[in-house]
Fold:
Amino acid sequence: MHVYVRRLGVRLWLQQVLRALPLALGVACAILLGASLFSGPVLTTTGASISWLCVIAAFGVTLALQLRALAPFRGSGIARLLEAQDRSLSSRVRSALELSATSEMPGQSPELLSAHVAQVERRLAELPEAQVLPWSRLSHATSAVGLSLLALCALLVATDARFGAFVGALLSPAPVREDGTRVSSVVRQLRVKLTYPSYLGHEPTTLVDPIKITAPRGTNMELQVEPRFPAERGFVYLGPRASNLDAAAGGAFVTRLALRESASLRIQLESGGVRYEDGTARTLQVVVDRTPQVTIESPASSTVVEPNDVLSLRFFASDDAGLASVDMHARLPSGEVKQRRLWSALDDGGARTELRASSAFAIAELPVQEGDVVVLWLEAHDGDLVSGPNTGKSAEVSIEVASPGKRLASFIPALQAAADAAVALLGDRLESDVPADADPARQRFAKLERASGAWLAQIDEVVRLAEHAKDGRGLDTDQLHGVRKRNKRLLDGEAALHTASVAPIALRQNANERSVGELERDVILLADLLAKAHVDEAGAIADELRDLKKRIEELMSKLDKSSSPEDERKLLAEIAQAERRLAELSQSLQRMATRVPSEFVNREALKAPESETTLAELENAVRKHDLKSAAKHLDDLAKQIDELASQIGEGGMKLRESRFGPRDQAMAGARQNLDMLREEQERLAGRSESVMQGTQPGGKSGDDGAAQGLAPRADALRKELDQLGTPGPGHEWQSQALDRAGSRLDDTREALENGDLSAANGTAQNAAQDLEQAANELENEARMYPGPNGEASRKAEAARKAANDARDLANEIAKNAQEGSAGLSPAERQRLQQDVEPQRKTRDATSQLRDTMEKGVDGTPLSPDGVESLENAQQAMQRAEQALQRGDAKGASAAQREASTKLAKLAEKLAQEQKPQHGRGSPSDSQEAESGDDLENAPVHIPGADEFKAPAQMRRKLLDAMREASPSGYEAAIQRYYQELLR
Amino acid sequence: MSPRRRRTWHAALLASCLLASASQGRAESHFDRIAELDRASDMIDELDLDQAERILAKLDADDPGSPAVTWERAQLAFYRGDYGEASTLGKQAIDAAPNDRATKPWRSLQELMQATEQVTREYRTARSEDGRYIVEYPDDRDRVLVPYALDVLRAMDQTLTRVMGRPLPGPIRLEVYASSEALSKVSTLTVEQIQTSGTVALCKWNRLMITSPRALVRGYPWVDTIAHELTHLYLSYITKDKAPVWVQEGTAKLLERRWRDDKAPYVLEPASRALLEKATRDNKLLTFDQLHPSIALLPSQDDAALAFAQVSTFMDEYVKVHGEDALRDAYAKIAAGTDARDALAGAAHTKFGELEKTWRSKLPKAAVTMAPRKLARRFRSSKGDAPDETEEVTQSEAKRFLRIGDLLWNQHRVLGAMLEYDKAHHSDSDDPIVAARLAQAALEAGDPARSLAAVDPLVTRYPEHAPTQAMRGAALAALGRSAEAHDALIEAVRINPFDPEPHCTLAKLPETGKAIGAEREACTALGGAQKSR
Structure:
């Protein structure tokens, strides 16, 4: 029962409070409404406190009055609530409650009381609390009144600015500054329009109620302020600086400002004599235009260029606002600066924030000479018209105009690396035996093949650099080509032994030994070339130093006569260059010490510190205008440089004599033979030509029409070869024979188109031979490795067919050529026949010379290119021989002329390579007069009659020598040679 | 200067003084003084320095400041090694002499005294414990020579005392010169003469003078050379400096290796033997007169070697037939003024012609199948000159493979280098330079047997080739044959003590009972930690 009663009490209180609250709140709001009628737009803290007190008091009183109605239901009075449901029960509950409360009374029977209570509880259990106090009781007039008042206030807050502002101010009362300014949210809306500087080319933007405004410096900012309440005046503060706001329509204020620097943005309004500041913290971020960035991507600093080079200057420039232009500046050795515009926004359709471009300029545009160093840099400008233009500068890049020493130095590191790699490769081969088993053999070869490939690439790089250097004193690239070619051939041969089926060990060992032998020759050759390059480099620098010394001398003499700042600047620039050269020479000598054998250099003598000191003293003297002392230092310098040049020159000569002397001698002999062969071939060609001219116009060799009719066959065959050379799926095949056949078929077609059946006959025969060789190779390969779907076998068949076709074509051409020579007289035919033997001998001699050149002095060919040229000449001679036998004068003459031309070109090439290097290693100035250039200007000595007579003894010797047998093929040439001598 | 010329100068100088003092009636005493001065001068030449000093002191007291006496005092100081004092006294004598002509010969010697003083001014000195042997050397690098030099001086001194019959008055001084240029400055030889003839040592003015082995690319047998020069010093003393050059050289060559083993027979080295054979065959033997005044003045190193071979075999034959007693008797006769040929013949109770005939009959005539070539003594051209012998390989294929081997070796491709050196060795198996490189690479590649096989056959053919000796020692050490290794390595040090490797290997040898500490010190001092060829 007690539990029931307690629950009922709680329910009663809850319902009463819920019914009273709306009313209390409504009354409080009504009080607020009233207060708002008497307050200003912004409440101070005191005003807000009083208002709050009133509101709370009204709320409390109303609530208390409402709860007073619960007083009769206190204690046993709660039973009254049951009256409406069951009067008797109400009474019984009341009595039970009262009796329970007075249980200590005398005479009272607890049993009766318990029975009574139990009875009441049974009744109460049948009557739920919700039935006694349903929630519908909440629907009451007081609640309605209260809710109405609340709704009214909410409506006013939403619609009435004054009331709304009052409520806002009540919630956040404005603090008052010392100057009386009240800080509160007084701006309803702030609109900002940004108009950017014109050079940026940006459209204006508008911001609404921004907290942070970011804009470039120079931007125009237009402000529009809408106050929360009517105000008479307005102000805007950028940092400490205030500006008036102009009144605009609808109570708003406007103004326009130019942005210079970042600051806080504050807005103040004045209303009724009171100043208000908007409490929202706003900032203005003025972005300063950054300096443009520019970098030179190429060339790299310390690049060496040739005087005639066109340099590609690649650069990257950027700017936040936009680039306006990029200029190149070049500082010359004299200190003068040259400028050139590389890019302009005006020419490129407007500013760009990023620019990657390249610009070509010729070194020759600058007034520089060999050995000069030019310092380049770029300057990028932006279009900032507000505080600019800003200029960004790149790092400086020094460009050196190549001098002979530099040219040599440009390939020395690569040559050194290649020489070291060759030794390493030889070591690899020597230190690992050829394995008997297939897998280790393949692994070994794969490793060697990789290393060899890398080494050959290094050789290519050396050749590239050396050829770029274009220095006559440079590297013998012919030899390097030879090294490359020979090793490639050996490697290809060895690769064929390490395919899917590995060749027998004996064959592989043999191939390995051949490679080792070749590498042994190559490492020595490369070491010698490197040593020579080092000596040449040092020599070239020493020569440059001597030239510089001369120029310094000239400038000093000029300065002595008439002192001018420009001459002095030039002189100092030359001295600076000499200092650089000296430093390079010092480095070069250090390199020489490790790479050039000691017998060729006197290391004690090859030291240059004294010269460095002398140069420094010379520079000091010039700066102090002490020309007398400068002249003395110059003399010392000259002596030191001459001594150094002499030492290097001697070392270079010793090196050349020791390492290259035998080769040079052999080459000189080969050239002599070559000259004689060329003369003989010329003679034979002339004889054939004279026969041919005698038969003209009817003496054409073959018929042009017939020849041209055969040309398409040659063309078709060539296409077949192209097809054959194309790698098939899963089968790659490369053959030098096939390549050769292809180019010979090209020659055949060309000869046929020109109506030259004789030449076509020779090339077609050769093509047929090559194709047969290629077919054999392919058939062997197909037997060992048929390839997927028999690809290799199919190719082998095709190659065989092509070989047969080529043979048919060659026979056809030969037949036509034979028919064409029918117009010769018997005497002419006999004359041609007479030349067959001399032509054969010449060919044999060419073959011997080729062998000599290939064998060289110690197995290294004298001239790899020469060997190839001689092979070609030999083939032409063979064709000539065949043509002579056929009585084909035109064919013979063409082939002979071709052979002769090839020999002449080779002779010219070798002469170029063997050209003596003037001015090298001459120990002193006095010896320079002996160089070729000076000889041209030397007085000519005209020999007297006595001087010109060949001594009788010499004539006798010559006649004796003439009687000795001449080498085969050289007879006629030697005969003429002796005749010339005796004359 | 010969005694006769010296006496003439003494007479001339003293005569001028005599004229000045004749008026005072002292002419007789002046003639006595000339005789005394000559005696002092002779005693200096005969290395009896103490007696000479006593006479000169008396003469100086009688006539203080006499130029002739002062000059002899200068000579005495020079012979004692006091070069500063010698130079000063010499200058005083020249300045005081009244006759310029007479002092001309003095001037050149005074310049030599001065030059010697300048060269040796900064020298370091090492002495034996008893003070009898003094070694003077130019800088700390040559300190490595000292213990070996003192050993050989002591041993050879004992041998020569026995052979010659009496000891040399001490102290015995050895001076070491850094280069042939320095040797030229302190001697009367030019640099060209020294380098042409391969002269590395001299004995004059009571001292032994040798060039440091570091001045030569491969070093030279400097220890035997000290013994050789000491023999000269003894002979000068025993024969009162009257023995002709060929006797001097013959005896010195014969005895130079006796300090190692007093009983060891004289063995002509193979290259010298080949030269002698060739000269005998071609009838190109040098006459005994051609060897005068010095073998160093012969036009080539080959001629010098032939001269040594001739005179040493002559003296060897003489001792073999007539014994050491006859030799000592002959020296005594020479000292007494007898001609050397007569003295030798007299002591042997025969005629010199017979002696010569006997010697010629014993000369080797049969041509050696392949004579070893003579390795020239190559002086370093500069301080930084690397000891590169490659250019001395004569066979072109061998030279080629050697270069390839060197290129591989420089890239630390030891095995590859060994294979290339092996090819070079096959091309010329008699080349010690090639063999030594092969041995080094083989040793480095862990094959000491191959290393030893390369150099072992050549060590007797080229005993002066230090790298061959050193590599043989190193290979033997690696094979655990310590005693043999020790001997080979010591032999290498006796040729080129500046190669750190033999010292380092010696220092590591177990139980040889030798001065390991000194070898370790030498190894470190010479930079033996950094391995290099």
Observations:
- The mean pLDDT of chain A is 79.
- Residues 534 and 592 of chain A are 6 Å apart (CA to CA).
- The first helix of chain A runs from residue 2 to 38.
- The two ends of chain A are 163 Å apart (CA to CA).
